[in-house]
């Protein structure tokens, strides 16, 4: 790990080819450490580690893969095998017609109006986070843990709120354990290490998954019988969801798989984005002061609401920049179905094609001084090449929850910064470690002083 006064933490990338065993040893601990350094300097890097793989950083080639090549570049087999036991053939995993109808049925769930209606839940979670931080003070607080709790508060309240059959802590524990296990396996498969390489333990036991699904099914059945008071949450909206083309509605199992998908795909990613934003706020005190001034002048002592979001442009720029430097989904991967040419290089059926979102955000051909934290880069969004900045992916499979996540992150970050001054704790710098997602290993330790 390297850091200097001018730049926040980063992982030194590989500058020389490693043998398979060294790659394996390093990758097991941190996938970032096997992204070759040239991936931040060149448009495409290819290699063979068991099977053929390519990392693509060229914006035109990425557009071709994500936008035009939906059928030719489906999500990698690995991603699917990995997540299927937990979230079935849901939106995140399905392909072809089965993906299309689910996407059409779920799209209205995340309309601007519906996401706005859920903002009070985010505001309440931000208030609760402030209370916990105040209660913990004046000691240093691990903002990573805080943000995981806060975003789980939100996702729990917008999916299975109000029922008594759903044990939130149990589901939280089961999902976090699953993500941790799944991540360990995926990196071996992504790189296609041969089968003789010893692998970490198999995924968590079937019975824990079964119990989680059972609880979700009972909550869904209770909800469809008894309904639910107040603003419609994601479960209500998905229950109403219908594919306008086929009139198909989701069965209980499909609803459950998609709601669990929202939890798996949305909770940790948003927590990590907030945790990295908080790390950057500790790192750059001037930016923190500017952000606090903006938040205080808009909020005037209250917690942020959905309506405040558009008036907090600097807070949003900090989140955008955190997503460039530390994208929660650091790599997305596809399996090529057809022979193709990308950047004058041959791609064969079966090749793994990765878009290392992390290296894209750090690519010297695309960004000026990419290792520097400069939220102002996002002041003029039109000046940014769309395919140089992909924290939410792109094309038809772009993250369905992006506006939900951004609204939540702005509300929580603005509320925290308006109430506390955060200073870093000496000797407690986090290490960027990517397993499935990009985490600040060791936590984000900051001292919070009420202002
Ligand atoms: C900062 C937070 C988030 C980040 C960084 C993020 C990132 C991503 C990325 C990169 C993809 C595309 C993956 C690919 O193409 O292989 C994706 C897809 C998806 N995300 Fe998110 N996500 C976030 C929050 C959320 C939230 C809050 C939800 C739901 C409540 C969500 C639900 C989904 C779903 C369902 C898909 C699959 C969409 C499809 O294939 O049609 N995500 N996300």
Can you describe this structure?
The chain is built from 15 helices and 13 strands. The strands form 5 sheets. Strands 3-4-9-6 form a 4-stranded mixed beta sheet. A 3-stranded antiparallel beta sheet has the order 5-13-10. It has a two-stranded antiparallel sheet with strand order 1-2. The chain has a single domain (2-73, 110-174, 181-193, 265-450), classed as Cytochrome p450. Mean pLDDT is 86; it is low at 194-203. The protein has helices at residues 20-29, 59-68, 77-87, 96-106, 112-117, 119-136, 143-159, 168-191, 206-226, 234-240, 252-283, 285-299, 313-325, 357-361, 402-419; strands spanning 2-4, 7-10, 44-49, 51-56, 140-142, 332-335, 340-342, 345-347, 352-355, 420-424, 431-434, 438-441, 445-450. Helix 3 runs antiparallel to helix 8, helix 9 packs across helix 11 (252-283) and helix 11 (252-283) packs parallel to helix 15. A hairpin with a 3-residue loop joins strand 11 and strand 12 (438-441). 48% of the residues lie in helices and 12% in strands. It is an alpha+beta fold and 451 residues long. Bound molecules: protoporphyrin IX containing FE.
Q: Could you give a quick summary of the protein structure above?
A:
With 451 residues, the protein is α+β, with helices and mostly antiparallel strands. The protein has one domain: Cytochrome p450, CATH 1.10.630.10.
């Amino acid at each position: 790990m390297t850091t200097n006064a001018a730049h926040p933490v980063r992982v030194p990338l590989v500058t020389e080819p490693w043998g398979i065993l060294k790659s394996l040893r390093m990758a097991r601990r941190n996938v970032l450490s096997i992204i070759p350094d040239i991936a931040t300097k060149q448009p495409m890097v290819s290699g063979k580690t068991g099977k053929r793989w390519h990392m693509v950083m060229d914006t035109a080639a990425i557009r071709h893969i994500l936008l035009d090549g939906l059928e030719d570049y489906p999500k990698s087999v690995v991603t699917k095998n990995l997540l299927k036991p937990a979230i079935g053939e849901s939106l995140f995993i399905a392909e072809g017609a089965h993906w299309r109808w689910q996407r059409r049925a779920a799209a209205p769930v995340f309309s601007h109006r519906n996401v706005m209606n859920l903002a009070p839940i985010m505001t309440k979670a931000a208030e609760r986070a402030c209370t916990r931080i105040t209660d913990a003070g004046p000691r240093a607080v691990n903002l990573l843990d805080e943000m995981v709790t806060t975003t789980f508060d939100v996702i729990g309240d917008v999916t299975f709120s109000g029922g008594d059959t759903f044990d939130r802590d149990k589901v939280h524990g089961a999902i976090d354990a699953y993500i941790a296990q799944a991540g360990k396996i995926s990196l071996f498969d992504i790189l296609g290490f041969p089968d003789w390489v010893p692998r970490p333990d198999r995924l968590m036991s079937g019975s824990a998954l079964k119990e989680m699904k059972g609880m979700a099914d009972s909550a869904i059945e209770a909800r469809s019988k008894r309904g639910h008071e107040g603003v419609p949450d994601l479960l209500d909206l998905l229950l109403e969801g219908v594919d306008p083309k086929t009139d198909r509605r989701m069965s209980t199992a499909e609803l459950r798989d998609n709601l669990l998908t929202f939890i798996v795909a949305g909770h940790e990613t948003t927590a990590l984005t907030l945790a990295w934003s908080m790390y950057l706020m500790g790192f750059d005190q001037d930016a923190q002061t500017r952000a606090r001034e903006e938040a205080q002048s808009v909020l005037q002592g209250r917690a942020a609401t959905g309506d405040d979001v558009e008036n907090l442009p600097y807070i949003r720029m900090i989140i955008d920049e955190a997503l460039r430097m530390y994208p929660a989904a650091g790599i997305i991967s596809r399996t090529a179905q057809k022979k193709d040419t990308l950047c004058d290089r041959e791609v064969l059926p079966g090749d793994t094609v990765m878009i290392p979102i992390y290296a894209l955000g750090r690519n010297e051909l695309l960004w000026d001084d990419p290792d520097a934290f400069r939220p102002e880069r996002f002041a003029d969004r039109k000046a940014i090449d769309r395919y140089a900045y992909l924290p939410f992916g792109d094309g038809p499979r772009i993250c369905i929850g992006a506006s939900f996540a951004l609204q939540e992150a702005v509300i929580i970050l603005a509320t925290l910064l308006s109430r506390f001054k955060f200073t870093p704790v000496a000797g407690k710098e986090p290490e960027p470690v990517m397993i499935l997602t990009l985490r600040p290993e060791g936590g984000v330790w900051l001292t919070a002083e009420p202002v």
